[in-house]
Design a protein that fits this description.
The complex is a heterotrimer of chains A (339), B (406) and C (366). Chain A is of the alpha/beta class and 339 residues long. Chain A contains 14 helices and 13 strands. Chain A folds into two domains: 25-124 and 226-329, Periplasmic binding protein-like II (D-Maltodextrin-Binding Protein, domain 2), CATH 3.40.190; 127-222, D-Maltodextrin-Binding Protein, domain 2 (3-Layer(aba) Sandwich), CATH 3.40.190.10. In chain A, 42% of the residues lie in helices and 20% in strands. In chain A, helix 9 (235-254) packs across helix 13 (292-299). Chain A is globular, with a radius of gyration of 22 Å. In chain B, strands 1-2-3-8 form a four-stranded antiparallel sheet. A two-stranded antiparallel ribbon of chain B has the order 4-5. Chain B has 406 residues and is α+β, with helices and mostly antiparallel strands. In chain B, helix 3 (93-125) packs antiparallel against helix 10 (315-345), helix 6 runs antiparallel to helix 7 (229-247) and helix 12 (357-369) runs antiparallel to helix 13 (372-401). With 366 residues, chain C is mostly helical. Chain C has a domain at 81-91 and 150-365: Orthogonal Bundle (MetI-like fold), CATH 1.10.3720. Helices cover 72% and strands 0% of the residues of chain C. Chain C contains 14 helices and no strands. Chains B and C meet through helix 1, helix 2, helix 4, helix 5 and helix 10 of B and helix 2, helix 8, helix 9, helix 11 and helix 12 of C.
Chain lengths: 339, 406, 366
Amino acid sequence: MFKKALVVASTAAVTAFSGAASADGTLDQVKQRGQLSCGVSTGLAGFSQRDENGVWSGLDVDVCRAVAAAVLGDSEAVQYKPLTAKERFTALASGEIDILSRNTTWTHTRDTSLGINFAGTNFYDGASFMVMKDLGVTSATELDGANACIQAGTSTELAIADYFREMNMSYSPVTFDTSDQTRAGFESGRCDFLTSDGSQLAALRIGLADPSNAVILPEVISKEPLGPVVRQGDDQWFNIVKWSLNAMIEAEEQGVTSKNAKNRTVTGNPANKRLLGAEGELGSNLGLSSDWALQIVTQVGNYGESYERNVGKGSPLQLDRGLNQLWSKGGILYAPAMR
Amino acid sequence: MFKQKTLEETKAAQRRSTGQSSAASFYNNPSVRSLFYQVALIAGLLYFFGNIIGNTLANMEATGIKTGFDFLDSAAGYDVLMSLISFESQDTYLRVFVVGFLNTLLVSAIGIVFATMLGFLFGVMHFSKNLLVRKLAQVYVELFRNVPLLLQVFFWYFAVLASLPSARQSLSLGEAFFLNVRGLYMPKLVGGDLSEWVWVALGAAIVGVFFLRRWAKARQDATGQQFPVFYASLGMVIGAPLLVALLTGLPFTIEFPVLKGFNYFGGISVIPELMALAIALSVYTGAFIAEAVRAGVQAVPHGQTEAARSIGLREDKIMKLIIVPQAMRVIVPLLNSEYQSLVKNSTLAAAIGYPDLFNVFVGTALNQTGQAIETIFMTIIVYFVVNMVISFLMNRFNNAVALVSR
Amino acid sequence: MNTFKPAPDRAPPSQTVGPIAWVRDNLFSSIGNAVLTIAVIALLVINIPPLISWAFLDANWTGTTEADCVKEGACWVFVSAWSNQFLYGSYPEAELYRIHLMLLVLLGVIVSSFTLPKTIRMKASITMWLALPVVGIAVLDGRMLGLPVVSTDLWGGFTLNIFMAAASIIVAFPFSFLWALGRRSDMPFIRTVSTIFIEFFRGVPVLSLFFMGSVMLPLFFEQGTNVDKLIRVWLVLIFFMSGYMAEVFRGGFQAVPSGQYEAADSIGLSFWQKTLLIILPQVIKVSMPNILATFVMLFKNTTFLLIIGIPEVVQTLQTALANSFWLGGHALEGYLFVFLVFWASCFGMSVLARRIEQQMNTDKRA
């Protein structure tokens, strides 16, 4: 009897699900709700942070805002759901959020075994080391036997294990729950070095009592391409998120900024006009209005603007563009052709 | 309670006999009703769990999440800060589970011992003649009982232990004990040939103490003469292993911690995460135990103290021999639940990165494998079983201290 | 006739009265005590002056940004700038009156359930308590009342700790009562199920239950339905609390004299009449101190929500500490603030619990 109930219940659940999925894509749900539900980090300097007025900002947050601008025409129509590293994929799978934009590393395992799709990369990062100057260490190869401060639940935890095994060195991992605690542990001398993604190291470094006392070692031990994630099985939505991000990058390539975007719809070259919806059908192919990219650029800005505002020269983090520069300027950012 | 139950039973019996005479009111028959309620409950539960399991299976299939316990055999790929058995990053998740479980047991055991000591100390201090000491006990209880444990864990770890000196400026005691921000380092005895006989002797001594106590108690019951059990036991426990060690030619070397490169190596090291968590758990739970002890002592009638004074016992003996044993009847059931909550609260290790079961398994393993149901389920079962064991032992202990009415 | 006139009392020896004697009796009655006294005083003298100068004399009180913290001492600017976040989360400022209203209503219900006339007290207060979570959600969310909707991802801060604790214990109340009854039941299956339920939720760490709420529960619902994270955690807390409260009530049931049951039976009350009208009021009364203690425990445990990323007060504090415009290290000020807020409320409640206990003791004697 129990088994029968189980079978009945599960088939009921399956049919209910498939019915729901075919009837209502994520795009329709978002439009109906009038708000985009976006999973972000609970607090990560420069990427997703809440200020004292409850306003969210950051590079990851800007992806949410861009999608909201493209879909709803309003970059503020976003519900931010702060998620821990552990629950992020479940939240996405259960439909609690429409996009996960929470500095998530694009890995093969995640892409293939968790029922998710990575919609691109909005930040190329890599795990690195920070040490105190007075330790006299200039290279990661001198760290044999040292203690490592790591933030729990990051892919860095795996990367550092691999690195030390490969180099035949030993280390003790001291894991902390939040970045603030990791910094406190490092500062107190609990560990000899702190390892995290390069962008986070920069944020942690300026939080030190004396930032000039710490140096970031040259080694980068892993590839950490961070990007927005969507559920598998909704290709339209996947395309919208992918091309919203690409539109920001393409806008920078074309020199379209939040200030000149309006004018470029009239005065711009054909590529500008195609991007901003004055010509062509890029918007309707995505199921969006023709001015989708115009909305993104005027409300959120192009990638370069977003970068400088959140993590670059316009922010306390002062990160260089590095890999995240356009391909034409020495980086690896490259948007597929907008045509 | 028993009385009223039997009453209800007789009433039920009466109803049953009257119910049989009038067939119309069979639904008033208590046994029919109880059967109906229970069948309804079973059906409800079956529907509920069937639904949940069905939904879960469907959900996991739809999102492509793996199921089953196969992941236990695959390599974990990450390192663990502290383990009582050897562990490398290529060991399996199952081993991670065992490592975490042992770490949980360790911190819980340390916490229980120190919480009990602190609790009894401050509980008895409440009755001190010194006003300041009395106030100190009160402040301790009210301060630590009323602040979330999470904040206390943070306090001990980030405010107290993190302000210790760095490894190179360690506080040291005779170049054998070192205390720094990375933990406490102590010398370790390393056994050579024949050293196992010393441990055998220690075991024998402990068994001997057990029998000595029984003998001494029997003798005191019979003759009224007291035997210095404490000193005799101490002598046995220290003397027997020492004697064997001397006979076998001291088969031990002492390994001192030495500063090599970044850290001290060798000896026994206690990481600050363990210290902070153990301190926080003992201080927090100690405050509750102190309250329990206070309540227990207050529950002992004052006449007991007066009677003890009248036969000329010293004040400290009154507390030890008369008051506390009687107070134990009130204290032990409370201790039981305090110990259980201590074990449960040890999951706060996650906040400061002590690698307990919860942290390494529901934390990192869940994060790396994504198999929420399996990891959480396994962990919950372990905590549940540990608490059942504690409850069982404490109930045995409770029966031992319960007042035997003659 | 000569009457006996007692001579006036002689003053007691100067060493047994007055401040000197008091000090001697209480502080220096023996050598050990004297040493203890001096140690305690020395500890206070060493620690208090630097603390005062850090927290008050050298502290920064005015300003709105980190740059305003120029002096050596505490940067209270951090706390004041973030105070809205710490207390209310991201709840819109224009709607804050709703939170204040609900706090007042909560307070009102508490006060009135002790002060209403005895004839209606029990009925009225039970109704009010049970209505409270519904009213609370309606007001705070606003959907049902036509107010602007404030979705749960904006709720946060210390008031979230209060509301989560209050809402779970209130909703758990009737359930725990049923579980306690079930555990006392004569029906073997019902008794077993109740016992397993109670022991399960008492035997596992609350943190693992929170993880269940955040990671496992979404899988339990039918695909396509997603239940808000806060609601899921609330559900879990209700289960958790009903396990604990069931044990509190079981103690209460045992404390009610069996004569009460027999008397109720003898006047022919049905099982539910007997339980609800005669036994329950007495159970609630004797369990009151334990209910409060359980509430304090729950209230403190709401800080564990930090670990699953619910923006309660400690989580908000950590968010603030990670903000790139406040990276100057204000952990001490922030945690001190949270500590004081929690300590004051928990201490207040434990004092209240003791009051109630004493009141009940005198009732018994009278």
